[in-house]
Specification:
single chain; 2 domains; 0% strand; flat
Length: 121
Amino acid sequence: MQVKFPPPSTTGLGRFCGSRSSTREARRDGLNASLSNHGDADSGGLGNEATPSEGAKRRYPAHFLSKLTDADGELQETLHWLGRAGKYGYLEKTKRVELEELCLTIGRKLGKMLQIPESFS
């Protein structure tokens, strides 16, 4: 037995609606859009430069390592929920195994990056 989840409601622009998190996402996307416009030729920017926040983050290897650690934690949570979804019949076994293998591949890549984070700065 496979259970199908109802499709999420969207605004028609690919954005989810109806929750506080979507409001935060919309604000963050608006901020990111305005920051990334500083490099457009039409706006008088300098072309191919990073946004101010990206430049600051690049100077701090500890920030990059923190993000890698966060990504690894999210991966572990994803593996947990894949197992639960399979256990309760929301996900077919073949699809669950396929997704778990993909997660493990990503996990190996994250592990290598965590071992030598300085080579990515």
